[in-house]
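Thread: "does anyone have the structure for this chain?"

Original post by V.I.:
We have the sequence but no experimental structure in hand. Need at least a predicted one for the grant figures.
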Amino acid sequence: MRGAVEIFHEIRRRKLKIAVTGIPKTVDNDVGIIDRSFGFQTAVEMAQQAISAAHVEAESAVNGIGLVKLMGRSTGHIALHATLSSRDVDCCIIPEIPFYLEGKGGLFEFLEKRLRENGHAVLVVAEGAGQDYMRRKTGMDRINEDDAQNQKQEDISIRAAGGRDESGNPVFLDVGQWLKSELNKWWRREHPNELFTVKYIDPTYMIRAVPANATDNLYCTLVAHSAIHGVMAGYTGFVSGPVNGNYAYIPLEEVAKAKNEVDTRDHKWAWVRSVTNQPDFQTKS
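Reply from O.Q.:
Generated one for you, tokens below.
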């Protein structure tokens, strides 16, 4: 959308008779203003398969933890909806909610309780979760790829952070590999003579590569038709998408600036807390 805004401004500067429109395509569902983005429903559907696999693997091991890292750099919509859909998740961690590992009410205490009760646990984490916490824990504000290659295999995930990629987005630490490493260190420290297994699944490219499901296919068709109707009516510099169920034309610049973050005061996050019974990490004792 930011690129489309730049194209739109340049076309206006040159006074060309070219219309610019966009459709809200991102599986993360982080496009603001509109109800949801194209690709999100498919991503949630595929994420459920990864969670189911992690549950089977965790259940098959003594003190097994199934760890699934899902897409969501700045928002946790995929992790949230996949958790509610799957019903096998014991804890869901998203970027909008800070978390901590040790101490009363921490993740380790909660997981140990679940392991004692059920013999296994499933943990879902969005890729953008815990970035500040990881940097504090590792004592690293920046680390380059050469440094990462010199670390132990389990720590290679702590990659180049602090920089930006080709799209201008910040480069994140790998929360999945980091959590796997921290979980193993914790268990070896606290329970050195007990079996423990972390089964880590990162289905990112599997989710991105699948064809859109029927719901997303229909949605994309409606959004595309709406965009073309807007162009033929003489509009430009807009995004077509549903707002409260009604298809609307929204200025590109507004969409490029807006963010659709998970509202942790909303009923959906309350449902997650109810389904998982996970701790409220915001009220650290």
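V.I.: this helps a lot. The mean pLDDT is 89.
O.Q.: and The chain is about 45% helix and 15% strand.
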